[in-house]
Amino acid sequence: MRILLIEDNDDHAEIIVDLLESTYKSQATIKRAALFNPGLELLNSDAFDLCLCDLKLPDSPLENTIKTLSSTEFDTPIIVLTSINNDAIAIDLIKAGIQDFIAKDRLDSEYLFKQCQFSIERKATQNALRDKTTDYEAFCHSLSHDFSGAIRRITQCTYFLNDSLAKNHALSAEEKQWLSFIQSSASEVQQLTSDLFNYLSADATLPSQTTTSTNLNELVETICKTIDSPLTILTCDLPIIKGNPSQLQLALKNFIDNAIKYNEKPAQMSFSYKIEENNDRLVIHIDDNGIGIPEEKVPHIFIPFQRIENGLQRQGSGLGLSLVHRIFKQMGGNIHVMPSSLGGTCFEIRLPIHQLANQK
């Protein structure tokens, strides 16, 4: 058992080392760092079975320690040690995703052993789940790529066959119908594989590598230029936010495509935003004049492969809104559905205020 202890207080370090040695007997090799950053370097460069890290260190304020530990992926389970035993600190740690922490005044051999074992077992489970998820996503990416190539070839061959047959003899209505069915079915599978790829890619890249100031009004304008169907944008007043431009464009395109697809008249849309009175949330409203979403289906629309209507009535993979939900959830936001003043659906997207481009 190799344990890293990051602790600046010599007296505290001596007590913790004694407890660890009495807990693990001669099975523990303990290495100590007195500062946070050298401790992280050791954690990244060496292999440890467990790390115990003090919450307040001379080279790292409490907020920085919490932020760094919660936002960095470590293979080693980390238990945070704190001298501040109060509920507020515990809640802050849990909100930051740090589940393993111990108040120093509660330390004894039995309690420390249990917490260490829980932390090690939890981390092993998380690592196994992460590896399995990575394998599944890699498989699906590969499958999506292979399907796309195969369907593209089927589509091309169908068009060539259609042209060749039409030149040699007049196709009957039934033959034309069958060829059209093959082409439309291939197109549906192509769209499904594309949607699946986008869905799996929504959180495949670290946000810190792709986030930039993105003008949502310009994205709407860009999308509208690619659409052939009738669409009227009544208002478009959206903010500049921090986000992945490609993913945000995918999300907005899904809203626009749905407004056109689920409509019995020329589509109309409105885009607007506001900042809540307490100044901590950015609220975006996207309205349309479509057929709306049945109340009983609202709880299920963000689940993958769910369709608003029967798949025979409206084409679609059922991944669009789940992709949208995944994108905004990654940004720390959430999305709700309500009736729109335009007669269709209103999607309300709520994001942390720091997602505004002019916010720190």
Automatic annotation (TrEMBL):
Keyword Oxidoreductase carried by entry: no
One matching Pfam family: HATPase_c
Single GO molecular function: protein kinase activator activity
Catalytic activity: ATP + protein L-histidine = ADP + protein N-phospho-L-histidine
Chain coiled-coil ranges: none
Secreted is among the record's keywords: no
EC identifiers of the protein: 2.7.13.3
Modification 4-aspartylphosphate occurs at: D54
Alphabetical GO biological process terms: osmosensory signaling via phosphorelay pathway
Database matches in Gene3D superfamilies: 3.40.50.2300, Histidine kinase-like ATPase, C-terminal domain
InterPro entries named among the record's database cross-references: BphY/WalK/GraS-like, CheY-like_superfamily, HATPase_C_sf, HATPase_dom, His_kinase_dom, Sig_transdc_His_kin-like_C, Sig_transdc_resp-reg_receiver
Domain (Response regulatory): residue spans on this chain: 2-119
Keywords: ATP-binding, Kinase, Nucleotide-binding, Phosphoprotein, Transferase, Two-component regulatory system
EC main group: transferase
Domain named Histidine kinase: residues: 142-355
PANTHER family: SENSOR HISTIDINE KINASE GLRK, TWO-COMPONENT HISTIDINE KINASE
Name the UniProt record assigns to this protein: histidine kinase
Upper lineage: Bacteria, Pseudomonadati, Pseudomonadota, Gammaproteobacteria, Cellvibrionales
